[in-house]
Automatic annotation (TrEMBL):
This is TIGR03083 family protein. It comes from Streptomyces aidingensis. The lineage of its organism: Bacteria, Bacillati, Actinomycetota, Actinomycetes, Kitasatosporales. One of its GO terms (molecular function) is metal ion binding. InterPro entries: DinB/YfiT-like (IPR034660), Maleyloyr_isom (IPR017517), MDMPI_metal-binding (IPR024344). Residues 15-153 form the Mycothiol-dependent maleylpyruvate isomerase metal-binding domain. It comes from the Bacteria.
Length: 274
């Protein structure tokens, strides 16, 4: 029995991104592991530690028994506290320790995924994500690893892979969450529409409509009279949606047509990863 066909795209995307991360970090000297990323409080080492920890937990490894320092400003809730344990426990690991653990984890997890026999609907229970089908869990892992590959690339000044299979999965998950951002988080008025015109390696045009009941939906059909049209490049969109950057820092990369105040409220609430 082979891996279910609906799981394979996520596995392939995950593989491509995590192997790219391994290639990016394997030549780094000790000091380069300390370069800050756009993830608050996390260096390149910390991002890799997070990836290692997440995949070890997906393998069923026991979590480290570790007490966090009290002065970590970026640890603000239970989810960030949960993630930080796997990061902080590796903060003093050397470059060779990091690369060898990453490579070993990739080997173990890849073997595990090649032998995945469970049905896509099998329910996974995750401390942060809650209960969700295996198929969705693997999509989230592909999204997470691609997003962190981008964090590392920006920290090292090595851009790329903005149009890979992982990028497509990340885009789709971001768009699935966009109606909530606009209709609920930003409190957009009922019977309104918002257009996102995104250019670059992964270009797309999407319209979010808020109906008379305040429910949001997203589609590829254009709107003739949107309240706001946002025009930006794909990397800017993904950085905003992943909560990596504040609007004021990249305002020059976004063109806004329509209600400026409402546009600012939407962009302030744009992160779908919190």
């Amino acid at each position: 029995m082979s891996v279910h066909p609906s799981l394979q795209p996520s596995i392939d995307a995950w593989t491509q991104s995590i192997e790219a991360i391994s290639e990016l970090v394997s030549p780094l000297v000790e000091g380069e592991w300390n370069r800050p990323t756009e993830c608050p409080g996390w260096s390149v080492r910390d991002v890799v530690s997070h990836i290692i920890g997440a995949e070890c937990e997906a393998l069923g490894d026991p979590r480290p028994i570790h007490s966090l320092p009290r002065d970590l400003y970026h640890v603000k809730d239970e989810a960030s506290r949960y993630n930080e344990v796997q990061v902080d426990v590796r903060r003093h690991h050397t470059a060779p320790e990091m690369t060898s653990e990453l490579e070993y984890t990739i080997i173990r997890r890849s073997r595990h995924l090649r032998n995945e026999k469970r049905d896509p609907s099998y329910v996974i229970s995750h401390p942060v994500l809650g209960k969700l089908p295996l198929e969705q869990f693997l999509r989230y892992r592909a999204f997470d690893v691609w997003a962190h590959e981008q964090d590392i690339r920006r920290a090292l000044g090595l851009p790329g892979t903005l149009d890979t299979a992982g990028a497509v999965i990340a885009r789709d998950i971001m768009l699935e969450r966009l109606p909530k951002v606009i209709a609920k988080d930003a409190g957009a008025p009922r019977r309104s529409a918002f257009v996102f015109d995104v250019s670059g390696p992964l270009e797309f045009l999407r319209t979010v409509r808020v109906d008379q009941d305040g429910q949001g939906t997203v589609s590829s059909s254009p709107s003739l009279g949107p309240l706001v049209t946002f025009t930006m490049d794909w990397e800017t969109y993904s950085r905003l949606a992943c909560g990596r950057v504040r609007v004021r820092r990249i305002a020059d990369k976004i063109k806004i047509e329509g209600d400026a105040d409402l546009a600012h409220t939407i962009l302030t609430n744009f992160s779908v990863t919190h």
